[in-house]
User: Fold these one by one.
Assistant:
Number 1:
Amino acid sequence: MRVGCKHLTVTRLNGDHGEVAAGELKSTNGTVGWDGAGTLRVRYDGPRDGLDRLSSSLRTRLGERVVPVEALKSIEVSSDPPMLRLVLREHADPLQSITGGYFDALITPYDFPVADRALAESLATDIRTMLVRRDVPATPAVRWLVAPPAAPDRLEGRDATVSVETGRLVFAYKRTARRKKLADGNPWSVPLGDIIDVEWTPNQSRLGTGGFLRISTARTPLERPKPRHDPAAMMTERRTDVDALFFAARLLTRIRP
């Protein structure tokens, strides 16, 4: 049986464990495809009206992401406004786990406005059924379940270049780097195993704040210098904000396999 409208098409399939459903939900925030067997594919359809440059670029670069049902904590359907929301388990998606929270704020990656709540609920019910069948816990994931976007091992910023080399993260400071950044030497490096947190902030011209990529280790002081003075931070160019986000996500998967 097929149930269709311009926002949702559901195909019923007979599986070994009873009837399941495959379907595709299209919304202004992207398309959610469900194969009925345990895998969601989230496609971001590039720029859309009302988004700023960074959010549009991020959607375009993300393209499609594969989300196994094991990555889900729950799936919600709200009424006002009608919305399908995928709630991921903590530590399932490295992009959501980067300190700062800007990824979720920029594009609300797992919220999908819908025109027909009843049809969205039908799809959500089938996904919930699979969550029960797979006995998926709501606890934090013990490993990454959503792959990070492709990212290079080297990233150039305004005051430094960071790179991953032989198990270490290396900061090579430029001439424009503040003197305090050079206190521990140039270049300065830290073993990947010593990194406990990765932070990303995009450039925000309206607020007059610069973007940066910053790491923390067990030795990082509670009162740390501003990113422009911090040896463990690199100020980023506006044009490479998305590259810095993807680099940060890939770095997370290296320090927390």
Number 2:
Amino acid sequence: MFIPLHDANDLKHIDRQYVTIALIVINVLIWLVTGPMASEQTAEAAILGFGYIPAVAFQYADLDPAFVVVPEQATYLTYAFLHGDFWHLAGNMLFLWVFGDNVEDAMGHLRFLAFYLACAAAGALAHGLVNMGSEAPLIGASGAISGVVAAYLMLHPKVRVWVLVLMRIPLPLPAVIPLLLWVGQQFLMLAIDREGTTSWGAHVGGIVAGLVLVVFLRRTGVPLFDRTIVTPRAVRPRSVPAIQATRLDAGGEGPGPWGKGQ
């Protein structure tokens, strides 16, 4: 439906999104080790050993002991750090890069990490509840990323987000438009596409967890449905007086999408 490119939304409480960056680096490194740099046998073993398998989690089947690497409860988290191919990885990491920093900013580093992992676990659980007897391993960060998107929607629905619509048209839109459409699509696809290769259940589980957890994990004083659009410092005209720049910070819309605090 759309690809997020950039949001004009400065960080307000942290200097840098260290957890978001660390998660992206970890996901990329794991993909390299279990994907392009691994043999087919090693890649399969990693997916079976670290992927979330509903039939095993709900005790409908047993995993061959040769492939058991971690306790089955741990796979509610480990699956979220595996990806099937480059585009699977790139899509998830792009969403995390664009939206994760401001959610981390609203929560703080440690709370955001706990939030991310909780959304991943909720995604796995929802997938399992929808496909209890499935022996196909679930992999990918989509459940966790869905939670991040849902939290961003709750925090910053009015912020301008540059998105690539239909892979062709770049548009600056209030976040509520593309994100609400995206959330609705996940619920719709869960209802009509039960046999596809995409786990819509994991997406929906992550979304529900994100909507709930952001209410409790945000910093004290961070409002939901923030209506303030912060003008990035890098694009303020040098001639603007300090008092006028302060007014822009308090709610004025910036002139463009560049200069996001990193």
Number 3:
Amino acid sequence: MVLADGVVHLDPERAVFDAMLFGWERQQRTRFLEDATIRLALIRRFGEFTNSYPWQWESADAEDFITHLRAERDGTRPITVSTARGYELSITLFIQYVTDTRYQWPAVCRERFGSVPVFHEGNSRACRQTRSAAADL
């Protein structure tokens, strides 16, 4: 856990998200992965695109994000299919980290925000679950 106990943050949502990113980066580096594989900037960009945090992300958010990146806009070229798949994999790896109870993020999110990040293996997307439905985690 990379979030300090007893500290009151001015922006608790941002503090938890930043701590999640820090912890995920550390976990990925212990697997000898490099920046190009870890893609912290992509996860931040996804968060900015959704204007929400991992415990609020829904299945459609990842699909909308990739669809947005696949569309030609403002003179930029759309991302390729292989890039889109790599991005989806990175988002999935991040979601797997924040939903793994060994890292305590589901409990932290439930306690602080009333919802937890949930991973649906069937579609490799993030979605959310309210505190009442997540009480058995």
